[in-house]
Amino acid sequence: MRALLIAVALVLTGAASALAAPGPETPKAFLEGLYAHYEGPDGRKAPGYDPNFCVTCKPALWFDPAMVTLLREDDRLTPKGDIGALDMDPVAMSQDPGGFIAKVEIRTQTATTAHAVVTLTYPSHVPEEPGVVVIRMSLAKVGAHWRIHDISSDDLTSLRGMLIKENAARRPRHKRR
After folding, report:
1. pLDDT per residue over 96-144, tens digit each?
2. How far apart are CA 114 and CA 109, in angstroms?
3. d(CA 92, CA 98)
């Protein structure tokens, strides 16, 4: 009888923990998790903050496979010691990311795609003039996870398009004989 009670308790505990487990990742949760790695205004650090965070250092965690291929090709085509076509943090649209407040809004979503607008507000020393950067992101579902498919802003029509163009221009050309 005691063994039966222990077995029932284990089954119920497993069922309860399964019910308490987080559901599938949402596009908003994915992006909010991404931006939690950055330092906020006045040095505030959110849970998840990482002073050594680099969104393109482990691109498969953040970008879809096609974008990962483009980012790796940019690295491969860049001579050692030079800066590649991507000379900034694409999710902060800055060469010196951090110090902002990120507001994530999902505009549209299907089962496999989502479109988000991320507003980064950089508080300035003049309260009436904060710096604001609006970033548009296309997300794609890769397996059970959301990943960035493309990024655009007022200053960048398409990160994907820029990398395709720049990588093509830097590929070695073979002469025909």
Report:
1. 778 888 999 999 999 999 999 999 988 765 555 568 899 999 999 999 9
2. 4
3. 8
Domains of the chain: 25-170 (3.10.450)
32 Rama class: left (phi>0) / alpha (psi -120 to 50) / beta: alpha
CA atoms within 13 A on the CB side of 155: 10
Q: What is the pLDDT of residues 58-108, one digit of tens each?
A: 999 999 999 999 999 999 999 999 999 999 999 998 887 788 889 999 999
